[in-house]
Amino acid sequence: MSADATRAQFPSKYERLIAAAKAVPPVPTIVVHPCDESSLRGAVDSAQAGIIRPILVGPEAKIRNTAKNVGLDISNFEVVNVAHSEEAAAKGVELIQAAKGEMLMKGSLHTDELMRAVTVKVGGLRTDRRISHVFVMDVPAYAETLFVTDAAINIFPDLDAKRDIIQNAIDLYNEAGFGSLPRVAILSAVETVTTKIPSTIDAAALCKMADRGQITGGVLDGPLAFDNAIDVEAARIKGIKSEVAGRAQILVVPDLESGNMLAKNLAYFAKADGAGIVLGARVPIVLTSRADTPRARMASCAVASLHAHARRRKAPAVAA
Protein backbone atom coordinates (compact mmCIF):
# COMPACT_ATOMS: atom_id res chain seq x y z
CA MET A 1 0.00 0.00 0.00
CA SER A 2 1.37 3.44 -0.92
CA ALA A 3 2.08 6.16 1.64
CA ASP A 4 -0.79 8.23 0.20
CA ALA A 5 -3.21 5.32 0.56
CA THR A 6 -2.17 4.59 4.12
CA ARG A 7 -2.43 8.28 5.02
CA ALA A 8 -5.99 8.15 3.75
CA GLN A 9 -6.61 5.08 5.95
CA PHE A 10 -5.12 6.77 9.03
CA PRO A 11 -5.66 10.56 8.66
CA SER A 12 -2.63 12.71 9.41
CA LYS A 13 -1.78 13.15 13.04
CA TYR A 14 0.16 16.32 12.30
CA GLU A 15 -2.86 18.22 11.02
CA ARG A 16 -4.52 17.75 14.41
CA LEU A 17 -1.39 18.99 16.18
CA ILE A 18 -1.07 22.03 13.95
CA ALA A 19 -4.76 22.89 14.38
CA ALA A 20 -4.41 22.67 18.17
CA ALA A 21 -1.33 24.93 18.12
CA LYS A 22 -3.16 27.48 15.97
CA ALA A 23 -5.91 27.64 18.60
CA VAL A 24 -3.58 29.13 21.23
CA PRO A 25 -1.58 32.39 21.09
CA PRO A 26 1.72 32.26 19.16
CA VAL A 27 4.73 31.47 21.32
CA PRO A 28 7.70 33.89 21.32
CA THR A 29 10.48 31.81 19.80
CA ILE A 30 14.20 32.46 19.50
CA VAL A 31 15.31 31.17 16.09
CA VAL A 32 19.08 30.62 16.11
CA HIS A 33 21.03 31.33 12.91
CA PRO A 34 18.27 30.86 10.26
CA CYS A 35 20.62 31.52 7.35
CA ASP A 36 19.40 29.03 4.76
CA GLU A 37 16.08 28.64 3.02
CA SER A 38 14.79 25.58 4.89
CA SER A 39 15.36 26.92 8.40
CA LEU A 40 14.13 30.42 7.58
CA ARG A 41 11.10 29.10 5.72
CA GLY A 42 10.24 26.86 8.68
CA ALA A 43 10.15 29.88 10.98
CA VAL A 44 8.21 32.05 8.50
CA ASP A 45 5.64 29.34 7.73
CA SER A 46 5.04 28.65 11.42
CA ALA A 47 4.70 32.38 12.11
CA GLN A 48 2.23 32.81 9.26
CA ALA A 49 0.23 29.90 10.69
CA GLY A 50 0.04 31.72 14.03
CA ILE A 51 2.06 29.10 15.92
CA ILE A 52 5.19 31.09 16.82
CA ARG A 53 6.33 34.70 17.06
CA PRO A 54 9.94 34.48 15.91
CA ILE A 55 12.95 36.52 16.94
CA LEU A 56 15.71 35.81 14.41
CA VAL A 57 19.26 35.68 15.79
CA GLY A 58 22.24 35.64 13.44
CA PRO A 59 24.15 37.72 10.90
CA GLU A 60 21.44 40.19 9.89
CA ALA A 61 22.70 40.83 6.35
CA LYS A 62 22.88 37.10 5.64
CA ILE A 63 19.40 36.45 7.03
CA ARG A 64 17.87 39.31 5.03
CA ASN A 65 19.68 38.29 1.85
CA THR A 66 18.43 34.71 2.25
CA ALA A 67 14.88 35.98 2.72
CA LYS A 68 15.15 38.22 -0.34
CA ASN A 69 16.65 35.48 -2.54
CA VAL A 70 13.91 32.94 -1.76
CA GLY A 71 11.00 35.39 -1.58
CA LEU A 72 10.26 35.31 2.16
CA ASP A 73 8.85 38.36 3.96
CA ILE A 74 10.56 38.91 7.33
CA SER A 75 9.84 42.63 7.54
CA ASN A 76 7.70 42.18 10.68
CA PHE A 77 10.22 40.02 12.52
CA GLU A 78 12.74 41.27 15.05
CA VAL A 79 16.31 40.45 13.97
CA VAL A 80 19.15 40.35 16.50
CA ASN A 81 22.44 40.87 14.70
CA VAL A 82 25.44 38.72 15.72
CA ALA A 83 28.57 37.79 13.80
CA HIS A 84 28.38 34.01 13.40
CA SER A 85 26.64 30.79 14.42
CA GLU A 86 28.51 30.24 17.70
CA GLU A 87 27.64 33.75 18.85
CA ALA A 88 24.05 33.22 17.67
CA ALA A 89 23.72 30.11 19.86
CA ALA A 90 25.06 31.95 22.91
CA LYS A 91 22.84 34.97 22.23
CA GLY A 92 19.80 32.75 21.77
CA VAL A 93 20.35 31.18 25.19
CA GLU A 94 20.87 34.64 26.67
CA LEU A 95 17.54 35.84 25.26
CA ILE A 96 15.77 32.80 26.77
CA GLN A 97 17.35 33.61 30.15
CA ALA A 98 16.11 37.19 29.76
CA ALA A 99 12.55 35.85 29.22
CA LYS A 100 12.43 37.11 25.63
CA GLY A 101 11.30 33.71 24.37
CA GLU A 102 9.59 30.55 25.53
CA MET A 103 11.01 28.26 22.82
CA LEU A 104 14.35 27.85 21.09
CA MET A 105 14.50 26.82 17.42
CA LYS A 106 17.54 25.53 15.54
CA GLY A 107 18.45 27.22 12.29
CA SER A 108 21.29 26.41 9.88
CA LEU A 109 23.94 25.57 12.45
CA HIS A 110 25.10 22.19 13.70
CA THR A 111 23.04 20.63 16.48
CA ASP A 112 26.08 20.17 18.70
CA GLU A 113 26.91 23.88 18.32
CA LEU A 114 23.47 24.85 19.61
CA MET A 115 23.46 22.21 22.34
CA ARG A 116 26.86 23.31 23.67
CA ALA A 117 25.35 26.71 24.43
CA VAL A 118 22.27 25.10 25.97
CA THR A 119 24.17 22.65 28.20
CA VAL A 120 27.09 24.81 29.36
CA LYS A 121 27.28 24.58 33.15
CA VAL A 122 27.32 28.33 33.78
CA GLY A 123 24.73 30.34 31.89
CA GLY A 124 23.07 27.47 30.03
CA LEU A 125 19.53 26.14 30.14
CA ARG A 126 20.04 22.98 32.15
CA THR A 127 17.53 21.77 34.76
CA ASP A 128 17.64 18.87 37.20
CA ARG A 129 16.28 16.66 34.40
CA ARG A 130 18.53 15.00 31.82
CA ILE A 131 18.16 16.64 28.41
CA SER A 132 16.81 14.27 25.74
CA HIS A 133 15.34 14.21 22.24
CA VAL A 134 12.00 12.92 20.97
CA PHE A 135 10.99 12.23 17.38
CA VAL A 136 7.22 12.71 17.12
CA MET A 137 6.49 10.52 14.11
CA ASP A 138 3.51 10.32 11.81
CA VAL A 139 3.82 6.80 10.39
CA PRO A 140 1.18 6.39 7.65
CA ALA A 141 0.49 2.71 8.39
CA TYR A 142 0.24 3.12 12.18
CA ALA A 143 -2.87 4.44 13.87
CA GLU A 144 -1.03 6.14 16.74
CA THR A 145 1.30 9.12 16.78
CA LEU A 146 4.60 7.43 17.60
CA PHE A 147 7.31 8.87 19.84
CA VAL A 148 10.88 7.55 19.41
CA THR A 149 13.36 8.47 22.15
CA ASP A 150 16.29 9.13 22.44
CA ALA A 151 17.72 9.09 18.94
CA ALA A 152 19.77 12.30 18.91
CA ILE A 153 21.27 13.41 22.25
CA ASN A 154 22.23 10.63 24.69
CA ILE A 155 24.64 8.18 23.08
CA PHE A 156 24.81 5.41 25.72
CA PRO A 157 22.32 6.40 28.46
CA ASP A 158 22.58 4.67 31.83
CA LEU A 159 19.58 3.67 33.92
CA ASP A 160 19.14 7.08 35.54
CA ALA A 161 19.37 8.80 32.16
CA LYS A 162 16.78 6.41 30.70
CA ARG A 163 14.44 7.26 33.55
CA ASP A 164 14.64 10.95 32.60
CA ILE A 165 14.37 10.16 28.88
CA ILE A 166 11.13 8.29 29.55
CA GLN A 167 9.75 10.94 31.89
CA ASN A 168 10.50 13.70 29.38
CA ALA A 169 8.62 11.81 26.65
CA ILE A 170 5.67 11.04 28.93
CA ASP A 171 5.42 14.68 30.03
CA LEU A 172 5.46 15.85 26.41
CA TYR A 173 2.78 13.34 25.46
CA ASN A 174 0.52 14.38 28.33
CA GLU A 175 1.13 18.13 28.13
CA ALA A 176 0.98 18.58 24.35
CA GLY A 177 -2.55 17.22 24.12
CA PHE A 178 -1.92 13.71 22.82
CA GLY A 179 -3.90 12.19 25.68
CA SER A 180 -3.01 10.77 29.06
CA LEU A 181 -1.24 7.69 30.36
CA PRO A 182 0.67 6.90 27.18
CA ARG A 183 1.71 3.31 26.51
CA VAL A 184 5.50 3.14 26.76
CA ALA A 185 7.42 0.22 25.20
CA ILE A 186 11.04 -0.18 26.31
CA LEU A 187 12.71 -1.84 23.36
CA SER A 188 15.38 -4.49 23.13
CA ALA A 189 16.22 -7.31 20.71
CA VAL A 190 14.07 -9.78 22.67
CA GLU A 191 11.13 -9.66 25.04
CA THR A 192 12.66 -11.76 27.82
CA VAL A 193 15.13 -10.62 30.48
CA THR A 194 18.64 -12.01 29.98
CA THR A 195 22.03 -11.03 31.38
CA LYS A 196 23.48 -11.45 27.89
CA ILE A 197 21.58 -8.37 26.68
CA PRO A 198 21.96 -5.52 29.20
CA SER A 199 19.11 -3.46 27.69
CA THR A 200 16.65 -6.16 28.80
CA ILE A 201 17.79 -5.72 32.40
CA ASP A 202 17.45 -1.93 32.13
CA ALA A 203 13.93 -2.40 30.73
CA ALA A 204 12.87 -4.60 33.62
CA ALA A 205 14.37 -2.17 36.15
CA LEU A 206 12.61 0.80 34.54
CA CYS A 207 9.26 -0.98 34.74
CA LYS A 208 9.85 -1.61 38.45
CA MET A 209 10.84 2.04 38.89
CA ALA A 210 7.45 2.97 37.42
CA ASP A 211 5.78 0.59 39.87
CA ARG A 212 7.53 2.46 42.70
CA GLY A 213 6.53 5.91 41.45
CA GLN A 214 9.97 6.90 40.12
CA ILE A 215 8.42 7.31 36.65
CA THR A 216 4.88 8.67 36.49
CA GLY A 217 2.14 9.52 34.01
CA GLY A 218 2.44 6.52 31.68
CA VAL A 219 2.05 2.75 31.44
CA LEU A 220 5.36 0.94 30.90
CA ASP A 221 6.26 -2.51 29.61
CA GLY A 222 9.57 -4.02 28.64
CA PRO A 223 11.66 -5.49 27.43
CA LEU A 224 9.71 -5.69 24.17
CA ALA A 225 11.06 -6.41 20.71
CA PHE A 226 9.97 -3.93 18.07
CA ASP A 227 7.48 -6.29 16.42
CA ASN A 228 5.56 -7.11 19.58
CA ALA A 229 5.65 -3.48 20.70
CA ILE A 230 3.73 -2.22 17.67
CA ASP A 231 1.88 -5.25 16.27
CA VAL A 232 -0.97 -6.89 18.20
CA GLU A 233 -0.69 -10.18 16.33
CA ALA A 234 3.07 -10.41 16.94
CA ALA A 235 2.45 -9.88 20.66
CA ARG A 236 -0.29 -12.52 20.66
CA ILE A 237 1.91 -15.11 18.97
CA LYS A 238 4.60 -14.55 21.61
CA GLY A 239 2.00 -14.84 24.37
CA ILE A 240 2.62 -11.33 25.65
CA LYS A 241 -0.32 -9.86 27.51
CA SER A 242 -0.07 -6.23 28.56
CA GLU A 243 -1.69 -2.86 27.99
CA VAL A 244 1.34 -1.78 25.95
CA ALA A 245 2.26 -4.73 23.72
CA GLY A 246 1.09 -4.23 20.15
CA ARG A 247 -0.22 -0.69 20.82
CA ALA A 248 2.81 1.33 21.93
CA GLN A 249 2.76 5.10 21.66
CA ILE A 250 6.25 5.79 23.01
CA LEU A 251 9.21 3.65 21.91
CA VAL A 252 12.25 3.87 24.19
CA VAL A 253 15.38 2.66 22.41
CA PRO A 254 18.47 1.17 24.09
CA ASP A 255 20.90 3.80 22.75
CA LEU A 256 21.24 6.62 20.25
CA GLU A 257 22.62 4.41 17.49
CA SER A 258 19.67 2.02 17.46
CA GLY A 259 17.21 4.89 17.88
CA ASN A 260 18.63 6.86 14.98
CA MET A 261 18.49 3.80 12.73
CA LEU A 262 14.89 3.07 13.79
CA ALA A 263 13.75 6.66 13.14
CA LYS A 264 15.43 6.73 9.72
CA ASN A 265 13.99 3.33 8.80
CA LEU A 266 10.53 4.65 9.61
CA ALA A 267 11.22 7.79 7.59
CA TYR A 268 12.60 6.12 4.47
CA PHE A 269 10.91 2.71 4.42
CA ALA A 270 7.56 3.59 6.02
CA LYS A 271 7.49 7.17 4.62
CA ALA A 272 6.97 8.63 8.08
CA ASP A 273 7.38 12.29 8.94
CA GLY A 274 9.41 13.04 12.05
CA ALA A 275 9.05 16.21 14.12
CA GLY A 276 12.01 16.74 16.45
CA ILE A 277 12.01 18.35 19.88
CA VAL A 278 14.54 18.47 22.73
CA LEU A 279 13.20 18.29 26.28
CA GLY A 280 14.56 18.62 29.79
CA ALA A 281 15.95 22.15 29.32
CA ARG A 282 14.32 25.30 30.65
CA VAL A 283 12.37 25.63 27.39
CA PRO A 284 11.48 23.20 24.60
CA ILE A 285 13.96 23.23 21.71
CA VAL A 286 12.83 22.66 18.13
CA LEU A 287 15.39 20.67 16.14
CA THR A 288 14.81 20.69 12.40
CA SER A 289 17.01 19.50 9.55
CA ARG A 290 17.29 20.29 5.86
CA ALA A 291 15.75 16.88 5.11
CA ASP A 292 12.52 17.73 6.98
CA THR A 293 9.37 18.34 4.98
CA PRO A 294 7.63 21.71 5.50
CA ARG A 295 4.85 19.77 7.23
CA ALA A 296 7.31 18.16 9.66
CA ARG A 297 8.97 21.52 10.43
CA MET A 298 5.60 23.06 11.26
CA ALA A 299 4.64 20.02 13.32
CA SER A 300 7.87 20.41 15.33
CA CYS A 301 6.89 24.00 16.11
CA ALA A 302 3.33 22.93 16.92
CA VAL A 303 4.41 20.24 19.41
CA ALA A 304 6.87 22.59 21.11
CA SER A 305 4.25 25.36 21.21
CA LEU A 306 1.67 23.14 22.90
CA HIS A 307 4.30 21.93 25.36
CA ALA A 308 5.35 25.52 26.12
CA HIS A 309 1.72 26.52 26.77
CA ALA A 310 1.28 23.58 29.14
CA ARG A 311 4.43 24.55 31.04
CA ARG A 312 3.17 28.12 31.30
CA ARG A 313 -0.13 26.93 32.78
CA LYS A 314 1.72 24.80 35.33
CA ALA A 315 4.14 27.57 36.36
CA PRO A 316 3.45 29.02 39.82
CA ALA A 317 1.88 32.47 39.85
CA VAL A 318 4.24 35.33 40.67
CA ALA A 319 3.07 37.52 43.54
CA ALA A 320 2.47 41.17 42.67
Descriptive report:
The chain has 320 residues and is α/β, with parallel strands linked by helices. It folds into 2 domains: 20-126 and 281-312 and 316-320, 3-Layer(aba) Sandwich (Rossmann fold), CATH 3.40.50.10950; 127-280, 3-Layer(aba) Sandwich (Isopropylmalate Dehydrogenase). Helices cover 43% and strands 17% of the residues. The protein has 12 helices and 11 strands. A hairpin with a 7-residue loop joins β5 (132-138) and β6 (146-149). Mean pLDDT is 91; it is low at 5-10.
Topology:
Blueprint: H1 3-9, H2 13-22, E1 27-32, H3 37-48, E2 52-58, H4 60-70, E3 78-81, H5 85-97, E4 103-106, H6 111-119, E5 132-138, E6 146-149, H7 159-175, E7 183-187, H8 198-211, E8 219-224, H9 226-230, H10 232-237, E9 250-252, H11 256-268, E10 273-279, E11 285-286, H12 294-314
Parallel strand pairs: 1-2, 1-4, 2-3, 4-11, 6-9, 7-8, 7-9
Antiparallel strand pairs: 5-6, 5-10, 10-11
Helix pairs in contact: 2-12, 3-12, 5-6
